[in-house]
Each structure stands twice: as C-alpha cells, then as structure tokens.
Amino acid sequence: MTGTVLTGCAEDPNEGTNGVGRLPAAKIQGKTRSAAESAGAVRVHGNVVSGGRTYALDMRLNDDGGDGSVTSKGATFKLLRIGEQLYVKADAEFWTHGSGQGGGGKADAAAASKLDGKFVKVPQGDPSYKKFSGFTDKGLLLDGLLTLHGTLATDGHDEEAGVRTIRVTGDKGSGGTLEVSLEGKPYPLRLERAGGAGTLTFSGWGEDFSLREPEKNETVDYGRQLPTS
C-alpha cells in the first residue's frame, strides 16, 4: 500500500512547477497568451508558411520594433524596424529577383546595384511595407501565431531546450500544438502550426535589447515607393 502511494507521488509531473499543467487546456492557452503579451521582448526562430511561400525567420522583437533575418526561396534579407520606420537590407540579386517584383532589365539591374548591401527605407505606402513589417511586429506576429484551432486539450508533458513543458493541442494536433513552459512564467516555447504551416521556437522572453538606427552612409531612401514595386 505504501509503495503505491510513493509511486503515485513520484510520478506527478507538475510537482515543483508553476502549476499551469494542472489547469484545463483553455486556461493554459489564456495564461500563455497573457504571459507572451506582457513580455517586453522575445526571439522567434523557425519556419512559417504563408501565401504558399515558406519563410525562415530569426527575429528579435520588442515593443519598439524588431531586428533579424528572413530567408525565402534561397534569398536572405535583413529586416529592421524602429517605430514606424522599416528597413530592408539585401543583396542586388534580391532586389532584381528575390523581391518578386523586378523585371530583370538593365534599369532594374542598375537600381538593384545601388541597393546592394544597404538599409533601404521602405515607404509605408509601398506593398512591401505591409508584407515585411508583420515579421517585425511582436504583438501582431504573436497574436497570429499563438492561435490553436479546434477543440483544445492537453497532451502530456515534454521538454523544450531543457525546460519542462505541458503540451496543448487543437483538434488532437491537426489544429496546432503548443509547448508551454512549466518553469517560471508560462511562456510559449515551441509551436507547430496547424496544417503544416511551420514550426517555431520562442526564447529570450523578457530579455530586452536595443535597436540601432543604421548610419546614413548605410542607408538608401527611395521616397514614396521602392524602385522594384
């Protein structure tokens, strides 16, 4: 009898945790969203499928903007947003072809060469602004990502980067799977998006960083519209 009691105690996976593992799935989802929204900064790393294209992200985000890199169709470009000002830094190849808007003519090649390796100011009226700024907006990005679809349920305990987690699923995984930290605040640590739309890890919650404006000699301003738009 005693042995049974001892075994039962030893197998409690929520012992010594923040306690969210004992909550219903919907409450865990609510607490992890609140924790994410209240954190001043986060690093997002992984893949997102959007509009039929796969984007590999490595972004640091805070309440003022974001800084990092995005790779799509073999082209890598750097994104930096400080307040409302968005910059894109890429090579000439990206501006000719990678942005999906260049025509490939001599005029395009000449324009692209001027943008090679520079921080290009993206005008707010340009279609690229909305397309790229979403990757740098912590609130918008997390709100869109941290949504599980269908009926929520807990699906056991796991570990992510050495941290104990509770797994929450939507429709048994087809609606997405989220690993929530059982240590400290219940931050989301790993997300498998519904429909195979990418897998992301979240780290550095609350670890703030500074965003630096590029030097003037590193910057190109094209006014109201990018040359390839």
From TrEMBL:
Region (Disordered): 1-22
Taxonomic superkingdom: Bacteria
Name by which UniProt lists this protein: Lipoprotein
Organism per entry: Streptomyces paradoxus
